[in-house]
UniProtKB/TrEMBL annotation:
Domain Response regulatory: 6-121
Protein name (record): Two component transcriptional regulator, LuxR family
Pfam family, one: Response_reg
Gene Ontology terms: biological process: phosphorelay signal transduction system; regulation of DNA-templated transcription
Keywords attached to this entry: DNA-binding, Phosphoprotein, Transcription, Transcription regulation
Record GO terms (molecular function): DNA binding
Superkingdom to which the source organism belongs: Bacteria
PROSITE patterns per UniProt: HTH_LUXR_1 (PS00622), HTH_LUXR_2 (PS50043), RESPONSE_REGULATORY (PS50110)
Native source species: Deinococcus hopiensis KR-140
Domain (HTH luxR-type) ranges: 145-210
Modified positions (4-aspartylphosphate) in chain numbering: 57
SMART domains referenced in this protein's UniProt entry, alphabetically: HTH_LUXR, REC
InterPro entries: CheY-like_superfamily, NreC/VraR/RcsB-like_REC, Sig_transdc_resp-reg_C-effctor, Sig_transdc_resp-reg_receiver, Tscrpt_reg_LuxR_C, WalR-like
Amino acid sequence: MTDPIRTVLVDDHPLFREGVAATLSADPHFEVVGEGATADEALRLCAGLLPDVLLLDLNLPGGGLNGARAVAAACPVTRIVMLTVSEDEADVLGALKAGARGFVLKGVSGRELRGIIASVAAGDVYVTPGLAASMLRDMSSPRPSARPLDDLTPRERQILEGVASGQSNKEIARGLELTEKTVKHYMTNILQKLQVRNRVEAALLAQREQARE
């Protein structure tokens, strides 16, 4: 059996959130690793847990779009699915521009929601009917930073320094008192932020940037 899809739920309506959590937890293919009610909590949970998918309410304290933008910038490995009652095209476009990979109406069934999450986690996109999925991919493509290392968190920089010095994931994990699995999650995040294909390219980029400083 493959690893369950690690999911964070952020919605300011506890009853709805608990219902979604129960629906996902009933299926062994999903694991709810965190819950929150605000945009700030969405960022904190995703930065700390690096989930596969974030289910984020569009209308919550701090703003769902603000939360999506912050998570997309800090945790590109996490795929964002917006939950909403709105079918307004402006809301859909706003969510896509903010970095969401899915836009789901709250009226979907539990089975449909699980299917959508699994699809988005696998790299696909889902959006309210009528809007082309290709538009979603175009709008959510990240723009490269002039100084890519500036986009990394302090922890990601520590891990990249270990990679640049030739350490394995196991050695980095031991030095930072993390699990090897956590280091692998961070490495996935680092590769996506730096837009490189593997740890060798990441190490070369880090060395080049350090030489420029």
